[in-house]
């Protein structure tokens, strides 16, 4: 059994590739290396360098490797930047997903796991996000992910009565952190963990944006989930699709409880051994007090669980970042 991982040279995609291989599934990677790293692709895994916007390339990859399904991770993932670059975001995430679906249809590939985002919910006014909550994305990035889910749904409906119906599910998650392999680290310039790591390595003081929120310690509470758990859920979703088993259209990969920014900072100091007191900066506009998702459906169907403590998450991410030099 062979599955294509789009964006398989990226931080999340590379973990998915390793999780597939560990489960006895042969991975194939396509990535344009705009944010990924060729070194993240394990030796022996077929790697096609190119863009998912090239339908001929995607279709050829599917046919050449006898691909049974696609785990679609590739995309422009920076919600804040998407506000300044909406057209680029839509090109990469909406048109890119359309092209992948078109290539799959042409090649007769009928299974897809879509790496979506909790950004489809926007800033919900409930403490615990469930899958049926209204979708009110607050950025072009969130909108592009929701449109991707719509495209999967519509293609599924359109092909339902055919000999090759599309089987699909979308996985939504918030902040992915840590590492399951010291050769893979989060190199995003926008995510909390790498921002703190880079500040500590440079001898600077990490910042907390606001400490007067309506939370136990005054700082934002968010979902932080380990990338190893995320990758494992993608693999189980792929296995269920391949086996013809029933799946939901979408799952939240949530922590159920969340962690505050202060708790993250305390763990950073504890694990790294670098004592610091975070600098308190003003709130950022639009930051809600708390956004945490339930993972009950995913626990039921995808063996989803949070298997790592906050110290585990920080330690694994820190070790991977230091190993990168």
What is the ordering of alpha helices and beta strands?
A: EHEEHEHHEEHEEHEEEHEEHEEHH
Low-confidence stretches: none
Identify the overall geometry.
globular
- How helical, in percent, are the residues? 25-40%
Structural class: alpha/beta
The CATH topology of the largest domain is what?
Rossmann fold
Domain unit count: 2
- Note the gap between the termini: 36 Å
What is the residue-averaged pLDDT? Answer: 95
Radius of gyration: 19 Å
Describe the 3D structure.
Pathway: Carbohydrate metabolism; galactose metabolism. Its cofactor is NAD(+). This is UDP-glucose 4-epimerase. The chain has ten helices and 15 strands. The protein has 325 residues and is α/β, with parallel strands linked by helices. It folds into two domains: 204 residues, 3-Layer(aba) Sandwich (Rossmann fold); 100 residues, UDP-galactose 4-epimerase, domain 1 (Alpha-Beta Complex), CATH 3.90.25.10. Strand 1, helix 1 and strand 2 form a beta-alpha-beta unit. Helix 4 runs parallel beside helix 5. The two termini are 36 Å apart.
